[in-house]
Amino acid sequence: MSMKWTDLGTLLLQYGLISSEDLKEGLALQKGSRCRLGEALVKLNKVTMEDIDWILSKQLDIPFVIVEDVTPNLDLLDKFKKDFLIHNKVLPLYETDDHISIVIEDPFNDTAIDLIEKNVEKEVSISTGSGSRIAELLKRTYNKVGLPILVEAISDITERIKETSFYRMDFFLAENVCEIGIFGFGIRKDIHTVKGHFSSDDVFKALGNLAIPFLYEQSFSNGSKFLAVYPLVQGAEVISYPAIIGEYGLCNPESTAFTDAHVYGAHHIFPLKHPMAGYPCFVTKKTGHGYNKSIYTVDAAPEVFKECYVRLYAPSTCSSCGGTGCIECKELGYKFTHIEGMFSSDELNEKLKES
């Protein structure tokens, strides 16, 4: 990339964007705060950031792009992490066999430019443009393209796992893909893959669009994120405590408080300071022995109990497909038998053997 180097302050004066007094003020602030001259002038409200971006294009003899006129290349966006592009205000424009063209707010952002070059193994051709408009266009594009796909996937999964024992949805958020699994009754099954760059906030927005309140836990590994989402079924009736629930969505009967997870989309629920063993479980606000006032998921229930209210869907391998997935079992590989009533642990185990 060839550059004509003319001092930024001189260019601003030549194009009539600032006065000599403005330049003196900017240089004084630059010296005192150790920032760039352009940043100093923006802080002093002498110019806008868009003015600086435009002048930089003149200073470096590179194109200035009107970002509003750009139609994002979705295939090219998929080659980069969403957060990286938005944070660095970079918009990939097009690529050839040897070059990739980008518009970037800060053409001196060598770290971002080097990462792009290494990622695609091509020479980077640089233009500059409004950083705020780059970020706005990227966010709008990702929301328009990615979020509806994620909403559709979660909606489909939600319908398929109703009247089943799956009560948790797992989201593995990697660089270019979101893998979705389901869990319950000790069974975990990968069920859907959505291509694209997704964050936890994207998952939360998708659940919000579907009006699904939820608890969640998250963890990180090798730059990827694992998000475990527990949908909440509100207003569920519990006949007696203690209770064991093994069906879609965590039960949220009246006068209960959930344990150690954040809560979104539901009111009057709060984390306890001392969560009970066997998470996930729920504890009522009433006083008394924890076991007698608890609701457990089926795979976190006490091993031995004399009498307990049970409401669950017991899974058994689908006889039609042998667990591989078919139309009859909604591609889950399992069919489910509804069990409800008062049982001891021995009685429940016998009932499960029959199902």
Question: Care to describe what's here?
Answer:
- By secondary structure, this protein is an alpha+beta fold.
- The protein folds into three domains: 8-137, Type II secretion system, protein E, N-terminal domain (GMP Synthetase, Chain A, domain 3, 2-Layer Sandwich); 150-231, Beta-Lactamase (2-Layer Sandwich), CATH 3.30.450.90; 236-354, no CATH class.
- It is 32% helix and 28% strand.
- It has helices at 8-14, 20-33, 37-43, 49-60, 74-77, 82-88, 110-120, 131-161, 200-209, 345-354, and strands spanning 90-95, 99-104, 123-128, 168-173, 177-184, 187-195, 214-221, 224-234, 243-246, 250-252, 256-258, 262-264, 281-284, 294-297, 308-317, 334-343.
- Strands 4, 5, 6, 7, 8, 10 and 12 form a seven-stranded mixed β-sheet that branches.
- The longest helix has 31 residues, at 131-161.
Overall shape: it is elongated
Element order: H for helix, E for strand: HHHHHHEEHEHEEEHEEEEEEEEEEH
Distance N to C terminus = 71 Å
Query: Portion of residues in helices?
Result: 25-40%
CATH superfamily placement of the largest domain: Type II secretion system, protein E, N-terminal domain
| Number of strand elements | 16
Spans of 5+ residues with little confidence (pLDDT < 50)? 275-281, 283-290
User: How many structural domains in the coordinates?
Assistant: 3
* Category from helices, strands and their pairing: alpha+beta
Examine the coordinates and then state which fold CATH places here, giving the name of the CATH topology of the largest domain.
GMP Synthetase, Chain A, domain 3
Number of helices: 10
